[in-house]
Amino acid sequence: MPARKNVLLIVVDQWRWDFLPAMGAHFLKLPNIERLCREGLTFSNHVTNAVPCGPARASLLTGLYEMNHRAVQNTVPLDARHFNLGKALRNIGYDPALIGYTTTTPDPRTTGERDPRFTTLGDIMDGFRPVGSFEPSMDGYFGWLAQKGYPLPPRREDIWLPEGEDAVPGATDRPCRIPASLSDSAFFTERALTYLKGKGDKPWFLHLGYYRPHPPFIAPAPYNTLYSAEQMPAPIRRETWQQEAAAHPLLQHYLEEIGQGSFFRGAGGAAANLDEASIRQMRATYAGLMTEIDQCLGEVFGWLDENKAWDDTMIVFTSDHGEQLGDHWLLGKVGFFDESFRIPLIIKDAGANTRAGQMEDGFTESVDIMPTILAALGGEAPRAADGASLMPYLTQPGGGPDARPHLYYEYDFRDVFYSRPESKLKLSMDECSLCVVQDEHYKYVHFAALPPLFFDLATDPHQFENLAEKPEYAALVRDYAQKALTHRMRHAEKTLTHFRATPQGLQEREAPRPADAISPLAAN
């Protein structure tokens, strides 16, 4: 291990796993991310534990499943009692810096109802030192633009309209009205370089967040035409959106509700009305935004090289969640499909990397990031954490005897101000949830108050045919429902459960090895 160790945690937004050259997207030009893949380890079966942004980042930064942290939707508060990566890093002598955002709504018991943070989607999680904040409401970025001399329009977000008076909002290869030198990705990169240049020789931790490739799906020149629609893979979906909607009530709700306006500034109409040509163009723009981030990361990596800090720095590259991109006729991050939950993960440790350039196929989750970073720095994850360190994977394929037998993730679809499924589905707030257990063979989706789903991934990898009601699959559905229940029981909140009172006084029991690794259902 090097004498000093830095950590660069790169968290992009809405980047799905299969838009990486290492995962088969060879049309993408991402030389700096490909460098990370060559010098680090790429994880091919990695998922976020929740969507959308707020719940996903809560799991990433607390190491807790949604069922335990309960920040179940954007705008839902995160309980102040929960530990997080920022606070843990302070305990081992790091001053954790944050660029970007965490979409965290504060615990109302720690402040007053007039706190302006309750008027936004979220703010910064306690424990981190913001050094380039996007929140609240992107004020940091828009203020930077004004300071740079850019004349902001009356509606600030109109900078993401397509260029030209005759432009029609929607999927387009036209550039946005802001130049690349003043994009939000450029803003985050400048903030990162400013921070790094001020650190000198002191060890550092930096959460470097990027807003892209999150919508609006419009890119600055020259990234708007870097890829053509013809290069993009076609969407994976049934012939009509109505056929998709017939598969499940939750799907029907989103297919009828999701509009284009959340993805293209100024656009109208339903997302399910996008034709294949528009989907391909949207994907080309999405890819262009990815290459812009890659170029920005090249500037940061270049500084690490020039200052001989590359070998002293652990780099973790991941996303908060994925993006449907028109698959199953959906846009955004909703429901239970892989496109919303499977995300990239690349880890390059400081110093030598035994498995540099390799691919790891074991099951990993975003709750593992916090324990991994703490283990790499000589710290220890809190007892309550649901994740486990991935450091063993960096030297041993498969991660050893404690590897997961399956993936687990959750989604809560209760009403928020921009989405209201409760009345449509005739459910109460606390019935609007699902959890997924998925392995290499099958995927089981359990709902609190809606019919379950079960897919055979060998014959139906894109999850079109629900087998949950077929008699010949009844035993398998039972087994996977039991796996889901067992998993939830083993990961119930456990902050204090290893303490007990005795005649000799308080006793702290040693935590056992992860129970999932020895599940009697793991072999089913």
From TrEMBL:
Hydrolase in keyword set: yes
Family annotation (InterPro entries): Alkaline_phosphatase_core_sf (IPR017850), HdlasePehA (IPR054912), Sulfatase_N (IPR000917)
GO cellular component: cytoplasm
Keywords attached to this entry: Hydrolase, Metal-binding
Gene Ontology molecular function: metal ion binding; sulfuric ester hydrolase activity
Region (Disordered) location: 499-524
Pfam short name (any one): Sulfatase
Domain of life: Bacteria
Domain spans labelled Sulfatase N-terminal: 5-378
UniProt keyword annotation of 4Fe-4S present: no
Protein name per UniProt: Sulfatase
